[in-house]
Amino acid sequence: MSDSTMSAPAAVMPAPTAPALAMFLALLAGATCIGFSGVFVRFADVGPAAAGFWRMAFALPVLGLWMGLEQRRPGRTVAATGALLPIALAGLFFGIDVVLYNASLGFTTIANASLLGNLSPVAVVLGGWLLFSQRPSRRILGALALAVAGAMMLVLPKFTATTAPAPAGLFGDSLAIAAAISYAAYIMAISRARDRAEPGRISLIASAICAVFCLVTAFALGETIMPASLQGWLAVIALGLVSHAMGQGLITLALGHYGASAASLVMVWPAMVAVLAAWALFGEQPSPVQAFGGIAILAAVLMVRKG
Q1: DSSP string, 199-263
Q2: CA angle in degrees (0–180, nearest 5) for 148-248-77
Q3: N or C: which end of the chain has fewer CB within 10 A?
Q4: Where does the chain show beta strands of DSSP type E?
Q5: pTM to 2 decimal places
Q6: C-alpha span between 122 and 127 (Å, rounded)
Q7: Is 40 helix (H, G, I), strand (E, B) or coil?
């Protein structure tokens, strides 16, 4: 049960309204924090799954504090029966997403990995429609189409080049697409969990499950787990505090006020952030076509705000 359903007796419940500006800004801020995750992974000197583990490990104390503050709040929501299953599934799916996305960065550009990894709105809208009968509005469908078109414009130059894409690059892109599917499942599980528990509790438990999954995967793959430099430690700390504690935390909070389809659509915003960061830090300069794609994504974000 979400917080908003407990604010008034049923007889005087107001009609549903558009999400508040504060929740939209929280969603956008969380997406921006996530957009830098690829940069932090590039600077880390550990394996992809190990980077995912450290991301969770450094975020857990902050998320634990968040849940503790929720417990002290008067009139807080009590976790409903059946909350643990969607929370556990969210942690598992997010672990798969993190490992696949981090691994893709070793084979393709940050821009490509982020763009393809953030095509999850397609799967979320279709999954919510087919599995949960959550028919999206025409505005959301239009915004979704615009966002996908923008993402395709950003990635198109790679496939229109005079030389064929390298097999390693295609493998990296495939990993990013698989990560997008996993992230879509995560978004749907989080949306279900937010009907039954508070965001702090969801974030803490799901992150702990994700940490265990990433650590087991890192050991199974024989990855380097401990950072070997100050830069490596700062990168994994930033992954935990910025990309996860702030990024995923704000998104989980906002999902209590947005439907999964609209919220996941805004998740294309990290792709734009990643493109700009990769341009500034690694010289991955976008073409004019990619720039138009970024404008299309911004327009889609504005459509969601009005939706």
Answers
A1: HHHHHHHHHHHHHHHHHHHHHHHT---S--SHHHHHHHHHIIIIIIIIIIHHHHHHTTTS-HHHH
A2: 120
A3: N
A4: none
A5: 0.75
A6: 8
A7: helix
Q: CA–CA distance from 2 to each of 6, 90, 128, 197, 204 (Å)?
A: 8, 17, 18, 7, 17
Summarised one tens digit per residue, pLDDT across range 17-69 is: 445 677 888 888 888 898 898 899 999 999 999 999 999 999 899 888 888 87
Among positive and negative, which fits the CA dihedral 198, 238, 177, 277? positive
End-to-end CA gap in the chain: 23
pLDDT tens readout for residues 219-233: 999 999 999 999 999
Q: What angle do CA 291, 106, 63 make, to 5 degrees?
A: 85
- H/E segment holding residue 292: helix 288-306
**CA-CA distance, 173 to 210, in Å (whole number)?**
23
